[in-house]
Amino acid sequence: MKPDSDIIRKRYDRIAPYFEGMEAVMEGLFFRNWRKRLWAKVEGHHILEVGVGTGKNFDYYPKDARITAIDFSGQMLKQAAQKRDRKKVNVELEQMDVQSLYFADNSFDTVICSFVFCSVPSAAKGLKELYRVCKPGGQVLLLEHVVSSNPAIAAIMNLLNPVVVGLVGANINRNTVKSVKACAFTSVNVDERSSDIIKLIEARK
């Protein structure tokens, strides 16, 4: 694991036991509906979830799919494993850094992430890995919070970003849509229901 990833991983390890409580209000008000929309777009049988965290997406997993879920934080995975066992979710959990996946090329019908690339040190490396492990004709689905298109709000986000990164390891000022479009995908679309700072991105290999 790269040094930058190791620093961020330790931050997520630290907050893992409290993570669901920290995001409970936002989860109830906003994120839950976005997760439903994200997972409704899943295609195929073999699915990879990147950044499973504490397992917030377990309730939206498609029936009868073969799902592998990864995270680079061992403590987050511990929380996810407990939830998996409690809810009896059929998922294989593995610790892995999205910047260096262990999977073979062209392995998954759909690769899916929710609020992950804010925490990846090199978005370009992570996206290239998602592209690599996705099957030809398959899709990569991303739900991400991004920097605002409003200059005044963007300036505030840029100002606050070092504090947020220091506390939890997440960047709040990334332009993930631009990063995805810079990758080798044949098409990239942003769901029309996306807001200014939350984007549902659909990329096709």
TrEMBL record:
GO process annotations (BP): methylation
CDD domains in alphabetical order: AdoMet_MTases
InterPro entries the UniProt entry points to: Methyltransf_11, SAM-dependent_MTases_sf, Thiol_S-MT
Keyword terms: Methyltransferase, Transferase
Domain Methyltransferase type: 48-141
Annotated GO MF terms: methyltransferase activity
Pfam families assigned: Methyltransf_11 (PF08241)
Entry protein name: Methyltransferase domain-containing protein
